[in-house]
Amino acid sequence: MWSIGWGKAEIVLPVHGLAMHGYGQPTHRAHRQRTALWARAFCLAEAKGSDPLMICCLDTGYVTALMRTRLLELWRRRHGDCDAARLLLTCTHTHSGPGGCAHEVLYNLVTPGFVETHLTAIVTAAEQALSLAQEQMKPAELWSGQFSFDTETEVAWNRSLAAYRRNPETPDYRDDERHLALDRCMRTLAVKQGGQLTALMALFGVHATCLGNSLDAYDGDNKGYAAAALEESLGGNAVALFAQGSAGDVSPHYHGPGQWRRRQRLQGEAAEVNYARHNGRLQAQAAMSAAEAAQLLLSGSLDAVLSWVDFSQLRVSERYAGRPSACTSPAALGISFIEGTPVDGRGISPGLAAVLRPLARLARWKRRRRDPSGMQRVDAAQGVKDIFIDAGERRVLGLDIENLGPWASLDPLARELRREVEAGEVAGRALLPSVLPLQIVRLGTLAWVCAPGEFTTIAGQRLLETLRPELARCGIQDLWLCTYCNEYMGYVTTYEEYQEQAYEGGHNVFGQWTLAAFQEHFVALARQLALPAKAREKPQCVA
After folding, report:
1. Which residues of 79-103 are buried (b: 16+ CB within 10 A; e: fewer)?
2. Which of 390, 361, 394, 370 is nearest to 378 (CA)?
3. Which of 96, 90, 52, 97 is nearest to 71 (CA)?
4. What residues pair up with 438 in beta bridges, in sequence order?
5. Spans of all domains in the chain
6. 89: which strand partners?
7. What pLDDT does residue 295 have?
8. What are the tens digits of pLDDT across the range 210-268?
9. Cα torsion 447, 448, 450, 455: sign
């Protein structure tokens, strides 16, 4: 039996018409608040008074390194020092939450710009929730349970089936079987006191995009509604935390024959909110079923390890890449990124994309002539991607971001970028993050593999398969993937999916060997977990 506490605190936001984070649309602005947004937290320790594991899930679209840094600073001022590796900060990935909370230029652009009040509200709520959880720690049992949605339950669909089918290990699903092309398992940690379920943590990968980009209110979307429904069902001071698994290619909206006709029937606030509630109820019911059927009582040690790795200049060993000379490169966003996704969030038109692709290839050819040695690495890493934004070179279609010329007048985001350049808000700042946190949290015989960004179904599956034998050596019997953890950095696809250059491949910023790089460095981190705490390497970058 461990000592466990839980709590939640509202993220109190000013509503001043700024664009929300998620869809990248400057017109997707928050003029009101439909539901409260929450920070939900758990603290777990082997005995009350020992250094706890702290898990906090935010009703936001992303977690940034700046959020994590500010939270640790605030926690240390108020509560004393803590082990940074024992803090897991994740989110529901609602697309109807606040933005402007990053160091990096491009993830602030749509808001527009950095918003200190948003960052302060999020960090304040996270500290309050964790503090409440720590204050209320009591002896409790933690049970592990799983529940698989049956094939008739319409809760999620694979939105990039052509990319998914490129993987050699996947079944050859038809277009009307997209609901099968994902991990349909809800994984739940049930907190019980005196045999009664009092709180829970759940992982299931599906985008929080039931609410589209035409609405104008902050909202927790499906994960928020799931948590609210379960907390109401449990009563008292219950907290239900709904975090994400391998959600990268998973949509809550139907994908398949007639997908646009079906999506159009869900247009408008009333229909979309009702659908978000419905999808949330399905997740809440599955989490409750998993908790009620939980048969594995977790016991043993609580532990965590954390490392920070610069993904912009990695050589990836042949063991993980399957071939020599694999590498990553500085971040680059593809044309398919700005095309958006087919149902959840469309971007530029196919016609405009067809115009931009030759321009992207021309810019790449010019750079190859100007910098042949540098382009060898970019070509090896980015492969077939038609690069729209080269974050390393700080260029858009080959043009310096600080001198876009007439392009800056053609698009609202380009105009905002020019405004920020002229205001001195871009010089010296990275466009996208490159130093990423990797974390493994141990809960007895269970480990959470905590990764930044959005892993596709098969990318997540391969990462866990790679880690399973490594972590088995230190007595870990089961692995769960938790994503959107501690930083946001785009997508992680398999090598095969990357070649399709669907939205996910275009937003896989470090290139086609990104997953292999994660596999290699998570294995190194797993080996650290097997060592005594005093023998472990300290992270080079601590936040």
Report:
1. eeeeebbbbbbbbbbbbbbbbbbbe
2. 390
3. 90
4. 307
5. 2-306+435-535
6. 56
7. 86
8. 999 999 999 999 999 999 999 999 999 999 999 999 999 999 999 999 999 999 999 99
9. positive
- pLDDT beyond 90 at 294: no
Return the amino acid letter for 408. A
Sign of CA dihedral 156, 339, 328, 311: negative
Burial of 269 (0-12, 13-18, 19+ CB in 10 A): middle
pLDDT of residue 411: 81
- CA–CA separation, 344 vs 346, rounded Å? 7
pLDDT tens for 450-495 read 999 999 999 999 999 999 999 999 999 999 999 999 999 999 999 9
Q: How far apart are CA 250 and CA 230, in angstroms?
A: 23
Peptide bond into 330 cis (omega under 30): no
Handedness of CA 109, 111, 114, 119 (dihedral sign): negative
Residue 540 confidence class, pLDDT cut points 50, 70, 90: low
Q: How far is CA 244 from CA 57, 59, 414, in A?
A: 10, 12, 32
Q: How far is residue 284's CA from residue 287's CA, in Å, rounded to a whole number?
A: 5
- Tokens representing 188 are 């739940």
Ramachandran area for residue 383 (φ above 0: left; ψ -120 to 50: alpha; else beta): left
Rounded CA separation 133/118 (Å): 23
Nearest-angstrom CA–CA distance, 313 and 33: 42
Per-residue pLDDT at 542? 47
Q: Compute the half-sphere exposure of residue 379: CA atoms within 13 Å on the CB side of its CA.
A: 13
Please determine, for residue 48, whether its predicted confidence score (pLDDT) is greater than 80: no
DSSP character for 346? B
Helix (H, G, I), strand (E, B) or coil at 389: strand
- Cα of 219 vs its chain's centroid, Å: 18
pTM: 0.96
Spatial CB neighbours of 428, under 8 Å, sequence gap ≥ 6? none
Residue with tokens 């380009």: 414
CB 292 within 8 A of CB 284: no
Residue 421 · residue 429 · CB < 8 Å: no
Rounded distance between C-alpha atoms, residue 6 and residue 442, angstroms: 18
| H/E stretch holding 278 | helix 269-292
Higher pLDDT, 49 or 366: 366
Residue type, position 213, single letter: N
